[in-house]
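Please discuss these two lines.
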Amino acid sequence: MQKEIAIELSPKDASQERFYKPVIARKLKISEDQVRHIQIIRKSIDARRFNIRVNMAFRVYINEQPTATEHWIPQFRDTGNATEVIIVGSGPAGLFAALRLLELGIRPVVIERGKPVEQRLSDIKLLDEGQVLNPESNYCFGEGGAGTFSDGKLYTRSKKRGDHYKVLEILHYHGADESVLYEAHPHIGSDKLPEIIASIRKTIFDAGGTIFYNTKVTDLIIDSNKVKGIITSKGEKITGKAVILATGHSSRDIYYMLDNRKIQLENKPFAMGVRVEHSQNLIDEIQYHGKKSPYLPAATYNIVQQVEGRGVYSFCMCPGGQIVPAVTSPGEIVVNGMSNAQRNSSFANSGLVVQVLPSDYHAFGSNNGLAALKLQEDLEMKAFGAINNNQVAPAQRITDFLNGRLSETLPKCSYLPGISASPLHEWLPPFIARSLKSAFPIIDQKMKGFISKEAIMTGVESRTSSPVRIPRDEETCEHIHVRGLFPCGEGAGYAGGIVSSAVDGGMVADKCMAYLNK
């Protein structure tokens, strides 16, 4: 017999089966011996009250064992001699498009500008040490995409078409911990994701797909408004029956290539700001009402605030994490955050970003689909110019930012290339500086202690999402003017984060199949 049961537990009782098994047995009025197997269905922390509780749902097997796995089972076909579709980019959208094509019996030919994930790690180490930026292999570019080294958050608010749970099951099949299937805000960790990406690569190869690394797309082969393939930086031509464009939000060269070809682009809503950092102990104290139980994870927070007609919100909050350089070209500074699986760093960081309005990029061309992108580029160059020392990031204490003064000293920061004091209040765009100055006191009212001398802000957090949308037909997902070209994922402006990008990749693969069957 199986029964599903929902229980509110203490953090300790929720931490291990030996604690919650007797609670379940009492609730069901059976003996512990009758409980043969317990499967966690859902788990979420309710920290709104002083008495913190954990809400859990279980499937309980009474006097029987599970007879078969309920997890996703792969059904990939051998595509070695099948019709080929080109996928540009091996981030979540590209990889999950490839996996779906394998299920449909279509051979994916993945074109990746960067290196395999194992080799990518070496370039990231050099970047963290403030030595060398490889424009094709960094925190944004390379196998796995930007999501590989930004905590691996798997939570999404997206309600778009697609099976979010299937994405989690596929990740679990390829090595993610089972907790991703039931946690309310699951994450994998930047230290675990490379192994999962390598496992997905093996699946693609084993089913007949292929991946070209260190291969940069510089043009499309288009005939009579129909895409035929791609051209690489080496002049090679690779043809396919369709092209899925899944290049991520930092592939500016792709946007410029499309614009030069007069392929329509659109400015898209996005946000920019700074990355704030506190001690994790402080965030634990704020969020857990003064004392953190050893059975609770590092605390997170979520900020959504309206000030002066704009949204100000937290982005990619990384408990127990570090700030990282997300730069892709010389002469710019971009920061982001990441956490490892255990989230055990002594720092907590998050983007705190401000909604960008069309009036903010009007000066860069009101009728130009790249105007928002140019505003983004301009801010990243200003951040570099503020210090002009490799990847050293401009930084300021939040208290000094609010008082309009340069920080004489800076607290310890997790950003490995280093920080240097800079008057962010002077060179941040006025709409960002004003909005942050208005938002910080309101946030501090809700999270007392958020403003402190030890709280620091680094600049700039500018790549929250793509500032460009590559328009596609709502039904077919093809570009509105180019047949067989399928803009996909975050870089195309249709997703934000790992899960929604993966869902979009799978959906676009289905649309691609429909196109091939016409």
The radius of gyration is 24 Å. The mean pLDDT is 95. Residues 67 and 459 are 54 Å apart (CA to CA). The chain is about 25% helix and 25% strand.
